[in-house]
Amino acid sequence: MTVTPPRTPRTDGPVSVPPARSAARSGETVPETAGEAGELPAASSGFLAKAALVTAALSVAGALLGLVRDQALARLFGAGSDTDAFLVAWTVPEFAATLLIEDGLAFALIPAFSMALARRSQGAPGDPVRALVAGTLPRLSLAFIAVGALLVGAAPQVVDVLAPGLPDPALAVDCTRLTATCAVSFGLAGYCSAALRAHRRYVAPAAIYVAYNVGIVTGMSVLGGLLMVLVQLPSLIGQLRRGRTAGEAPVGHEEPRPLDTALLTTVLLFALCRQSQTLIERFLASQLPAGAISHLNYAQKVAQMPMILSVMVCTVTFPVVARALAEGDAERARSRVERDLALASCIVLLGTAAVVACAPQIVELLFQRGAFTAQDTAATAGVMRVYALGLLGQTLVGVLVRSYFSGGRGSWYPVGAMAGGIVVTSWIGALGIGPWGVYGIAVANATGITVTALMLLAGMGPRSVPIRVRAVLRELSRPVRAALLATLAGALAAARFADPVQGLAAGGLTVTVVFLLLGRALGAQGIVSALRSVRSATRKLSHGRS
User: Fold this and answer.
1) Tens digits of per-residue pLDDT, 364-419?
2) How many whole angstroms separate alpha carbon 138 and alpha carbon 228?
3) How far is CA 287 from the centre of its chain?
4) Quick count: other Cβ atoms within 10 Å of Cβ 291?
5) DSSP designation for 174
6) Which of 22, 89, 154, 225 has its CA 20 to 30 A from that of 216?
7) 206 CB-near residues (< 8 Å, 6+ apart)
């Protein structure tokens, strides 16, 4: 791909550093390809499109393997007390994934590595990247081990806090002790993932959930966590060995650089607040009849698929935004975040429309076999439709929070916004569980995350990448209108067929066609950008194979 030299830094950005030297060469065709040592692939639209497609493909593969795992659970145990106990223990890996891989650690490490790479490119003494690794990896590894040991010892208390209404918590305690080992493996996997993404290497980080679920499906959780580390380790070692450009010896020496304490504290608190939505749900659902936690889990896993795909956009571009701010180019960062919002919103709204329109058919095809009955399908589909109402809020939070932390500084505003959403979730959940049961919990989840998204939008400005909020909201209204009509048309089409396969095919196709046609007619920039990126990436991949 064609590579353009880095821009001259602006003086109005959050971070001001001298201009970085041109690092990448033309002719690179895949995201994992490195040029000379120390170079980064250019962040052109073609490169980002290919990286997003590769990341999305591997993420979908990992998610599908996760569905295989959940299908096996549903077939063997249905939605009963044993499944509830297992899912309470599974809260530990879910928490660890959010804190150590998806959100918390990545928000702190990617800006730190981006700054180190920028300092390396301008000729700082020693190797800032290796100094960062020396100052952070040993300390974080000890912290991961300590947390894992604490969870093993405190498993009974953890289960009692997570689900005090379980009739027999012994099985949940045993499972929690087994899952506690993920604190170490997930922590190391998250560290490798953040470092590689900062280097714009996306294949190995995107493959971790494939490796993880292969390990779980074929063996056990410990094996899955270990595979997440091993699949990334060769690539990370290769990047650290390259260091500077070929033949250039490091000049001077740089002391190990620890992470900024304020940054690490705020990102971990934000991730804790965000993941506490799951704690609230399971705490409330443990007071309902057996199976409630299972229905919530199955519904949430399927409903969140569109959100996972949409967030892949900013997973790929977050290092680009962080590097732009490290080089002082706030305008480039703003443009990137606004484009991410438009594209991610279109992706998640298309998926939301499909989930709402075809929920019964999706659940029946995925889970209705063995101990999972038609009644479980109806309950799970209903909850899934309610969950889907919060998917746009989930995606907006995922995109916007990165703009607050991409400058590599601690920010308490996102923590406050997430805490406000948690208060709303808790309040509505406590009031709604009586009259509406699991539906009240799902309503609370959707409402709380939407409130957080609105608060993050309202707070955009000097403390984050300064996007144009009114322009973003105007742009967002276009795919929202298209999604509403597409949902109605898709539901009508799906209902015409008794067979779930035919209903899902008819509903999904109708949703897609109506959404794309209406979105383009309304001028939704995210749809235009997505189609252009897919064409560009497909053309370049075809060229690379020829």
Assistant:
1) 998 888 778 888 889 889 999 999 999 999 999 988 988 888 876 778 899 999 99
2) 19
3) 30
4) 20
5) H
6) 154
7) 54, 55, 57, 58, 59
HEC letters along 272-293: HHHHHHHHHHHHHHCCCCCCHH
CA–CA separation, 207 and 190 (whole Å): 12
Quote the mean pLDDT of the chain. Answer: 79
Pull the structure tokens for residue 239.
């990047």
Q: Residue 12 burial by CB count (10 A; 0-12/13-18/19+): exposed, middle or buried?
A: exposed
**Dihedral angle sign, alpha carbons of residues 355, 356, 360, 361:** negative
- Which amino acid type is present at position 98? T
148: tokens are 């894992």
pLDDT digits (tens, 9 = 90+) for 7-41: 333 333 333 333 333 333 333 333 443 333 345 55
CB–CB of 394/446 below 8 Å? no
- Phi-psi bin for 291: left (phi > 0), alpha (psi -120 to 50), beta? left
**Which amino acid, 319?**
P
Neighbours of 431 (CB within 10 A): 13
CA dihedral defined by 355, 357, 363, 365, rounded to 10 degrees? -110
Cα→Cα distances 182→95, 119, 204, Å: 10, 34, 19
DSSP 365-418: HHH-STT--HHHHHHHHHHHHHHHTTHHHHHHHHHHHHHHHTTSS--SHHHHHH
pTM of the predicted model as reported, rounded to 2 decimal places: 0.72
Question: What DSSP assignment string belongs to 96-107?
Answer: HHIIIIISHHHH
